[in-house]
């Protein structure tokens, strides 16, 4: 009779072998499924997605060219041979090109005065680049401003200003925020935006007009 005690390691191996013997069919199926899933991920990242990006880029080239030539309808809808920004955004939404197409589609709709449509496309854009992201938020603010929802526009301009602190986009967004809040009758918020503009970006072109605008809002506030 073997009186030698089993070690924890041996007990663990025995338990595993017992579990495997009892459930080996399920274990094998799970293993196969994991192999298939890993293969699918590899194929998507190394073959399918690059091909998709290349295909999207071919169509985007012509659509962007039409945009630069101010042929907005062709840029948006295509020319019968090449896809326009709408179809590129819809068919290649999972790619970077598809996201760029959404951005351009939003800009075109904004230029055409179709503000709800523009917002739908801007909301599908989530660029990692903070400057571009700030620009998208500013354009969303422009849509709401055109629809006369000045309070919402002002809030978006402030969000754009906070997205990326730089001399290019932040003073511009703060100035637009002040003007939007003033239109909304929120003079206190307008003054805060102009105050921040003067304090943080005194050398910017927008800051030169801020003192007069602060005085104007204070006058309106007191009336």
Characterise the protein shown here.
The protein has 223 residues and is mainly alpha-helical. Helix content is 77%, strand content 0%. It is built from ten helices and no strands. It has helices at 8-68, 72-77, 85-91, 96-111, 115-122, 130-146, 150-163, 170-184, 187-200, 210-222. Helix 3 runs antiparallel to helix 4 (96-111). The radius of gyration is 28 Å and the shape is extended. The protein starts with 7 loop residues before the first helix and ends with a helix.
What's the total number of strands?
0
Query: What shape does the CA trace take?
Result: extended
Can you tell me the CATH architecture of the largest domain?
Answer: Alpha Horseshoe
Beta strand %: under 5%
The CATH topology of the largest domain comes to: Serine Threonine Protein Phosphatase 5, Tetratricopeptide repeat
Number of domains: 2
The overall average pLDDT, rounded, is 84
Number of helices: 10
- What ranges have pLDDT less than 50 throughout 5 or more consecutive residues? 39-45
Task: Report the radius of gyration as a whole number of Å.
Answer: 28 Å
**Protein structure class:** mainly alpha
**Helix percent band:** over 70%
Secondary-structure element series: HHHHHHHHHH
CATH class of the largest domain: Mainly Alpha
In this structure, how is the largest beta sheet organized? none
Q: Please give the alpha-carbon distance between the first and last residues.
A: 103 Å
Describe the secondary-structure layout:
Layout: H1 8-68, H2 72-77, H3 85-91, H4 96-111, H5 115-122, H6 130-146, H7 150-163, H8 170-184, H9 187-200, H10 210-222
Helix pairs in contact: 1-4, 3-4, 4-5, 5-6, 6-7, 7-8, 8-9, 9-10
